[in-house]
Amino acid sequence: MSPTIYTIILSSLATGTIITMTSFHWLMAWIGLELNTLAIIPIISTLHHPRSTEAATKYFLTQAAASAMILFSSMINAWNMGTWDITQMSYAPSNILLSLALALKLGLAPAHFWLPEVLQGSTLSTAFIIATWQKLAPMSLIYMTMNNLPSMILLMLGLTSSAIGGWSGLNQTQTRKIMAYSSIAHLGWMAMIASIMSNIMIMNLVVYLMMTTALFTSLICSKSKTIKDTATTWTTSPTLAIIMMLTLLSLGGLPPLTGFLPKWLILEELIMQNLAPMATAMAMSALLSLFFYLRLTYTTTLTLPPNTLQMKFKW
Q1: Dihedral of the CA atoms 225, 231, 234, 239 (nearest 10)?
Q2: Environment class of residue 241 by beta-carbon count within 10 Å: exposed (0-12), middle (13-18) or buried (19+)?
Q3: Per-residue pLDDT tens over the stretch 119-168
Q4: Which of 47, 183, 232, 290 has the highest count of CB atoms within 10 angstroms of its CB?
Q5: Measured in whole angstroms, how far is the alpha carbon of residue 176 from the centre of its chain?
Q6: Which among 68, 195, 44, 222 has a CA at the least distance from the CA of 121?
Q7: For the whole model, what pTM was predicted?
């Protein structure tokens, strides 16, 4: 793709997100989401390979369905309440529909099946955009409609996402799929705290964006598509391998690294709200995620020479 076209598409992507984040009318928010979706389709399908075409199609179908559901829920609300204001979604059925639509748009379990497939079918840099930038617009909508969304649905979505993100990541060897399940688990934590304390949700989102950016940049630099590739990272750059190890441990949520802070605050807040069983289940599911982060860390940095890697070095 020529740099000019790529620049235009990326600026459309940014514009779509900004329109959604700054609008108060549902129609404008929907236009922003559609612009976002349409801008990233050509980026996913640049490879001209059946796998990337399939990923682009899957992405388009899920996002179009989610956007249609969002528009439908806002129309029901406008029909019953006479307002198109995003912050005044006071009709219960439209709120339930909206939370399910946003779950589909973000890739929260049980509507998560498209995310690993799409990330696996696109390049590392495209997967990075989908896992980070594309989460901003739906998260801003959750933030704006927070007071009205049914908290029980959000808690259940958060719990299932965290558990499924942990379970499904266990048997993956592809780094992009591991990052997809990691993303699902982290979004589960955000959905869990969203209806209780939205400022912790924002902090969790910022920390997640920083850590995912760091890890994806490391993966792009070392061209690591599988766990086997990460094992030879130290031959090109030992420093990068150490940074990757720290980022992975931070994503897993180990103290004293940054990734531990949002998890700690979320668990504390859940216990304050008398949701101790929920907090326990979330902590348990975090252990599942931690296992595959640790496995990746182990192959990346803890198996240094003299080692038994039966593979060619990068050089």
Answers
A1: 70
A2: buried
A3: 999 999 999 999 999 999 999 999 999 888 899 999 999 999 999 999 99
A4: 183
A5: 12
A6: 44
A7: 0.91
